[in-house]
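Researcher: Here's a chain I'd like modeled. Treat it as a single chain, no partners, no ligands.
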Amino acid sequence: MTSGKSKRERRIAEAKKRAALYSVTPKSRYGQTPVRSQAWANAQRRRERRNILKVVGVFSVVVVVLVVVIAIQHNRDDKSAVATIDTSADGGTTPSGSDAATASTAAPVPPPALTAQVVDGATGALAITKPLGTYEIRYDSTYNNAGTTSTSTNDYLVQRPFDSSLSIKAPNPEANQDFDAVSAIGIKSYLSGGQTSAQTDVPAAGLADFRFDASITDLVADGSYVLKERRTLIGRECQMYRTGQSPETYSMAPPTATNYTDVCIDGSGLILEEIVVVDGSFQQHMVATSVNESPTITADAFKPLADPPLLSASGSTLAPLDATKVPVPGYWQFATPPLGYTLQNRYTYAQNIADPAADTTSTSVPATVAAADTSTTVAKTITVASYVDVYVNGQNYIVVHQGPTSVIPADDATTATAVTSPTLGSVRAKPDLNGTTMLITPASPASWFVEVTGTLPKDALGTIANTLMQSPQ
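Model: Modeled as a single isolated chain. C-alpha cells:
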C-alpha cells in the first residue's frame, strides 16, 4: 500500500479493488477494444475465460488489476479501454508491473490450519449423493495481502440450474464498498460502489454455483484435483482435495508445491472450506458457517441489478426463437430431447466482432469519421448471430450453442485432445467446474461450430451429444 495515505483512504482503496474482482464474467465480450483479428479475438477470449467469475476472490494477489477491471466494467462504451493481464502462476489475475506482482517477492506467509476436523478411519472419496436444487451458504473469509489481513462475510443463494446471488459484506462500514452480484438465465449483473453493470451471455450455471456433483470424478481422473483426507465441519462431512487453482478462477490445473488450493467438498457438492496458496504464500481462507438446504426464494431474489448494454453499445442480445422451427439450414439438434430433459428455450445470441473482410492480419482496423475539425477512429465491426438451445431436467441443464466459427467460444475444451466422431466430426471434451464442455467442429455446415455444455460427467454428455442430428441443408 502506498505510504502517506490515511487509514480510511487505504481501506476505501482496498475495498474498491476487492469489488472489481467480481466484475469479470464468463465469456464477456464487452469493455474491450473491438476485435482486430480472429487470432487476437481467440487470445482475448482465452484470457477472459481464465479470469471469469472470480467470485470470492484471491483478494491479495489482485491489488491493481481490480482497479483496471472496474474501469473496464464501468467504461464499456470507451472502446480504447484495454486490460493487459499477466498469465502468471496466480492463474492470470495479476497484471505485469503491478504492486500485486511485486508483492509476491515478499516473505511467504504460511497458510493457516484447516478448521474442518479430520475423520479418522475414513477411506476413499466421499460421494456426492445429495446435490441440491436450492441452497443458501454463508462464509467467513480472510484475505492476506503481503502480510496484511482483511475479512468479509460472503452469502450465496442458489436456485439451480441458472439462478444465483452473491453478497459480500465487509465488517468495516467506513469502507462502504460492499458488493452484490446476481445471475439469471442469460444475464449476469453487479452492484459495486453504488454503480451497476450487467452482461448478456449464453445461459450457464449461476455465478459461483460449482457443479462438482457432475465433474469431480473427471477432475480427479485428469489430475486437476488430488484426493486427500476426509474431514467434517458444521456437522457436515466433506472430502478434501488439492488443486492448482482456486475454483473462483474457473481454471483447472494440477497442484504444485507452491501453488495450490485445498477445498473440502461435502456430500451435496458444496465447498465448506477453502485455503488458497500462491507462490508459497497464503492468500485466502474461506470457512462455511451455515448451510440452508431449503431457503426461502422470493419473487425478486434473482432480479437483475441492471439492464445489460444494447448490441449497439458493444453489448450482446439473447432473443427467443420459435423452438418448432430450425433457424438455419444444417442446424444441429436432438430429434427428441435427451431422456428426462425438455427444450426450455431456443435463442438467437447476437454479438459484434471485427469485420473479417476488413483485415485478418493487422491489429488495427481503423475507419476515420470526421466532423468539422474533429475526427474519431473506430473499428469496423459486424453483427454475427449464433443460436442456443437450452434443455432442462430439474436442476440440470444441457446447452447447445452453435454458429459461425467467427464467434467460436474459446473455452477450456479448446485445449482438450480432439477425437473424431463419425457423426459430429472433430470433438474436444473437457471437464470443468460446471460439468463438461464439448467443442465440436462438424464437417458441415462449413465454418461452423457446435458447443455442448452440461451438468453431466464427460462420458454421459458425450453419449448424449452423439445423438445430435443435422437438419437438411
